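WARN  no MSA supplied for this record, continuing single-sequence
INFO  ligand: iron/sulfur cluster
INFO  echoing inputs
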Amino acid sequence: MTVAIFKFKDNYDESIWNILKTLNLEDKIFGYDTVVVKPNFGCLHLGYPQQIIESIATDPQLIVALVKLLKNNGVRRVIVAESGMYGVKIDRAYEGLGLTKSIPEAGGELYNIDQGEFEKVKIDEIEVNLSKVLSDCDFLINVPAMKTHILCTVSLGAKNIALGSIDFGSKAKVHREGIHRFIALMAEKLNPGLTITSGIVSHEYLGPTFGLPRKTNLLIAGDNVISTDSVTATIMKIDPREVEHLKIASENGFGKVDIKEIEIKGEKLKNVIISDFVPCCRIEEAGEHYSRALGIDGKMDICGTDYCSGCLNATVGVLWVITHYTEGETKPFTLVIGTDGEVPKNALGKVYIVGDCQAKNKEKGEFLPGCPPNGQAFYKIFVDQCLTEEAKRKAIEGQAKRKASNDRRLPPMKHTLKYY
Ligand code: SF4
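INFO  complex generated
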C-alpha cells in the first residue's frame, strides 16, 4: 500500500503523470478496456460562490486531464460517472462545470448514475441499489475532494466511492441503518485501484457544504482508498484512528489507519500537515455552530446526532436563505432530527420534528414528513410561524425578487459573506 503526496504546481498533466509513475500504475492502467472515473460533484449546488464550489467539488480540470491522458494512451472507454445528493441534478452540475463540452472533447463520456442501471447488492444486512457502471468496469479511479464532514468527520475517498455509487433511496436507507460500517464495506467491495484526492482547494470547518474554502495545493494519491484517506486525514490534522469508517475498514484488514504502516512517497508527511486546519464541529454542537454561521446565534437548537444531508439541506439549507433576507431576525426554534433526536424538556421555542426518521415523535411538534422533507414547504411553514410581520415581509419579498430575476445563486450564509 503506497500513498504519494504532491504539491500541485499548476500543471494537471504533469501532476497525473507523476502520480501514475510514483505508484507504478501507468502501464497497468493503460492496458484496460473500460476505466470509470468517479469524481465528487454530488453536493454541488451551482448557486454557491466560485470559491466554495472549488472547495466542495473535485477540481474539474483534474478530471479532464485524467480523461485525456487515459484516452491518449490507449484506454478504449473512459467514463466519468457521478450521482447527486438530494436536490442536486448531476447533469446540471456537469453543464455548470463545463464538462458537457470538455469531457467529450477529451475523448471521454459523461454518465449520470442517478438515471443509469443498478443492481441489488447486500452489504452486511443492508440491501442497496449499486450503480452497474461502477461494479462492471475494468478499473475504477476515485477522485474525491478534500473535505470535513459533520457526520463522518471526513468526506474523502471511501465516502465518495461508497455513497456516490448508490441511488438516493439507498443513501437514505444507509443513513438509517449504519453509515460508517456501510462506507467501510462498500469501499472494500468496489476497491478503486487508484484514489487521487483533489486537495488543491479544500473545505474546512462545517463540511461537507456549509464550511469554508482553503487553498491547500495538494494532491494525495494511493492504491488503497483507506490508506490514502488516512494520510489525507492526517494532513487535515484529523487522527484517522478516530474516523469511524476508516477504523472499521482497517480492523477488517482493508487498508491502514496507522500512518507508520503506510509507505509514503513524494512530499514528506510532516512537511505538509496543515497545523491550523479547522475540523468540523462535533455533531452534538451543530446547533451552536450552524446558528453562528447563519447569523442567528443562540436562536436555533439541533437535537439529534444521526441524520443525513437530505434533512440538513431541507432545514438548515432553507434557513440559510431565509436568515439572509431577514438579516438574522427570527424567533427561537428547535430542530429534532435523525434517528436518535429527542425533544428536550425545555426545548428552545417552536419545535420542528424533521423527516421520516422522526415519525416516532411526530406528535411532539410541527412534523415535517418525508425522506427528506420538502424544503419549500418548510420555507413557508417557518416564515409563517417563526418570523415577525416585518421579517416575514422581507423573506417573502426577497424570495419573490430572486425568482423573478431568475437568479439561481444562493444568497450568502453569513459566515461566507466575504466570498460573495
Ligand atoms: S428522514 Fe432525513 S435523516 Fe432520515 S434517512 Fe431520510 S433524509 Fe436521512
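The radius of gyration is 21 Å.
INFO  checksum written, moving to next record
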